[in-house]
Structures are given as structure tokens and as C-alpha cells.
Design a protein that fits this description.
The protein is mainly alpha-helical. It has one domain. The protein is 55% helix and 2% strand. The protein is built from seven helices and two strands, in the order αααααααββ. The N and C termini lie far apart (126 Å).
């Protein structure tokens, strides 16, 4: 046998052996499956509110239209007194314990000043509304109490009212109006913060639905517009529909003048 033939035979044997070895070798494992993608939870309304919570709208100038919009000076002072009443009734957690005694002291210390403010507010309603002013004012007053008592905002409201209650102890009669009006502005800042948070929740919810709604179901949210409209007599806003999350949680007339 020639050397070339021997080499060919060896090559054939080696190739055959390698093929046999390859046939006995297990195939490589398949690649691992892709890591699961974490699906974020569907956004939830702040403060445990209903998804259809009513958010007051802004006007063309960006001003939120609430029961505290377009008020006279004395109306602002009286609405702050209403906020204090709501806080005394509803802010009952231990961290808000300063509110009730401060409220009672405030009503007693400023009895004359609050009576003066009440008479002025009464006169403004009489001039705007005429003979039916008492019923119109009572309706509006209930809306004010319900506004301040809205459950989703109540924790934030009670926090700021605790600060205001403590500060009220050093207010002199001559500074009553300034203190009351500045305090109402602080309270409205808290409510504006919540309304902004709720609007952001709706934006986040729409984005979630756009990305995951087809797979997990669209959110069933009733987009409710605000229910306040200008009074036909001008000035104070009047509520057209029930107050939603805030309805009937406060009780007007707790202590002092109405």
C-alpha cells in the first residue's frame, strides 16, 4: 500500500471518528427566555378619592374656580372662619389636637369682630340677591363647609389648619381680617396642590391605559368637569351639582355666630 493511500485511509478514519463524537455530543441548551417585563400598577387617585372626583376648572387666566374665588374681603374672612369650624369638627387625630381648643378661644376672643364680619357679609348677599338672599347664602354656606370637608383632602387640610390654629392664639382683634384672609389663601394653596395632583393622576392614568390598556383593560373613569358657575347676581360662585366626594360631611353652625 502506498503512503498516499495510507494517508487517505487515516484521514477517512479520523473524519469518521470525529463525526461519531459529534453525533454523541448533546446540543447546546436553548437561550434563556427574556426576563419578564414589570408592569407598573394602574395609577390610583390621590387620597383615596373616587376616580370621578370633581376638580374645579381654571378660567382663561389660569385661576382655579372654587367657592373661594371672587370673594370680597369680608367673605374671605368669613370663609376662613367656616374652615376653622370644619377643622374643629373633623380634624380629630392626635396630631391635630390643638385645633379644637384654639377654635373655641378664637370664637370667644373675636366674638365682636366675627359678628361685624357676619353683618357685612349678610349685607353683601342682600344687595346682590335681594329678598331671597337668606336661602341663597345658606345654600352657599353649606357648599363652603362641604368643600373644606372633602375627605380626600382632609388630611392635608387638617395639617395646615393645625398650624393656623396655633397662630390664631396670638392674633389681636385689630389684625383679625388680615389674619383670616391670609389664612384662607394658605388653605386654598393646600387645595390647589391636591387638585394639581389629581390632574396629574388623570394624565398618568391615560398614559397607563395607552400602553397597557389593550392587554389589561381600560380604566373605567368618568371624567367629571367642575360644577361651579358664576352666580347670576355676580360675585360668589354657586355650585350647580352635588359636591361629590365632599357632600354632607360638615355641619354648619358649630359654635359662635352662623
Amino acid at each position: 500500500m502506498t503512503m498516499n493511500a495510507t494517508m487517505r485511509i487515516r484521514a477517512i478514519l479520523v473524519g469518521t471518528a470525529l463525526a461519531a463524537i459529534a453525533a454523541c455530543t448533546a446540543p447546546p441548551p436553548p437561550p434563556p427566555p427574556p426576563a419578564p417585563v414589570a408592569i407598573p400598577s394602574r395609577p390610583q387617585p390621590p387620597g383615596g378619592a373616587s376616580p370621578s372626583f370633581t376638580v374645579p376648572p381654571r378660567d382663561m387666566y389660569g385661576i382655579r374656580q372654587t367657592v373661594n374665588t371672587n370673594l370680597s374681603g369680608v367673605e374671605k374672612s368669613w370663609n376662613m372662619r367656616s374652615a376653622f369650624t370644619v377643622a374643629a369638627l373633623n380634624c380629630l387625630n392626635p396630631q391635630h389636637a390643638a385645633i379644637l381648643p384654639a377654635y373655641k378661644s378664637f370664637i370667644e376672643t373675636h366674638k365682636a369682630g366675627l359678628a361685624r364680619i357676619n353683618r357685612s357679609v349678610e349685607q353683601e348677599w342682600r344687595e346682590r340677591t335681594g329678598s331671597g338672599y337668606q336661602r341663597a347664602r345658606d345654600t352657599y354656606t353649606t357648599q363652603v363647609y362641604n368643600y373644606f370637608a372633602m375627605p380626600p383632602i382632609l388630611p392635608r387640610f387638617c395639617d395646615v389648619m393645625t398650624e393656623i390654629a396655633i397662630q390664631s392664639q396670638s392674633v389681636t382683634p385689630v389684625d383679625l381680617d388680615v389674619f383670616a384672609q391670609n389664612s384662607l389663601a394658605r388653605i386654598e394653596t393646600v387645595f390647589e396642590g391636591y387638585f394639581t395632583d389629581f390632574e396629574q393622576y388623570r394624565i398618568d392614568l391615560a398614559a397607563w391605559d395607552a400602553q397597557y390598556g389593550a392587554r389589561y383593560g381600560q380604566s373605567q373613569v368618568q371624567q367629571v368637569s367642575a360644577s361651579y358657575y358664576p352666580s347670576s347676581t355676580g360675585g360668589t360662585l354657586v355650585q350647580q351639582t352635588p359636591a361629590g366626594d365632599g357632600a354632607a360631611y360638615a355641619q354648619p353652625g358649630f359654635g359662635g355666630t352662623r
